Each structure stands twice: as structure tokens, then as C-alpha cells.
Amino acid sequence: MIYWLRDPLSLDRMIEKARKLVESGRVERLDGGRFNVIGDHGTYTVVQTFEGKVTCNCPGFLRVGRCSHSTAVILLTQVLRGRRARRKERE
Ligand SMILES: [Zn+2]
After folding, report:
1. Cα of 58 to ligand 1 centre, how many Å?
2. Which helix (H) or strand (E) covers residue 16, if one does?
3. 88 CA distance to ligand 1 middle (Å)
4. How confident is the model over 8-65, as pLDDT tens digits?
């Protein structure tokens, strides 16, 4: 259980955490491409540009430029975009 503490950037772990945030409904969509993400240590604001780039105001993102919150927003919006695309194919 300790090893990931030494490697907080483990991509697999981050994606896993992000997926859990999405699945447990802890990503809340606001207006203007903003999202509230309720993380383990607080609620953070993730902003997504129209190109799909994300920024988060948590310490992890400020330090290394990625985090489970912003990844969760990417996962969520990919699902939403995928649904839209599939609907279009049927039309
Ligand atoms: Zn974050």
C-alpha cells in the first residue's frame, strides 16, 4: 500500500481514481466548461477549454500538470462526446 505514495504520478492509479470519481458521481458539470470535482481532500475546480484541454486548481495539478480530477473530467466528457457521436451515426 505504501509504494504508490512514493509514486503519486502512477498513470494507472490516476486513471483508476479518476474513473471512480466519475462512477460515484463526484464530477459535477458547471457552465462555461467548468466542473466541480469532489476529491478525497477537497473540492476542486477543473476547467476544460473547447479544445478539450483541462486545468485543475489542486496542488497536484499545479505541481505536475495532471491529476485525477482533470483526468476524471476527460473521461466524463469523452463518454458524453462518444454518446453524441453514436447518436449521430444512427441518424
Ligand atoms: Zn486536481
Report:
1. 4
2. helix 11-23
3. 32
4. 567 888 999 999 999 999 999 999 999 999 998 899 999 999 888 999 999 999 998 9
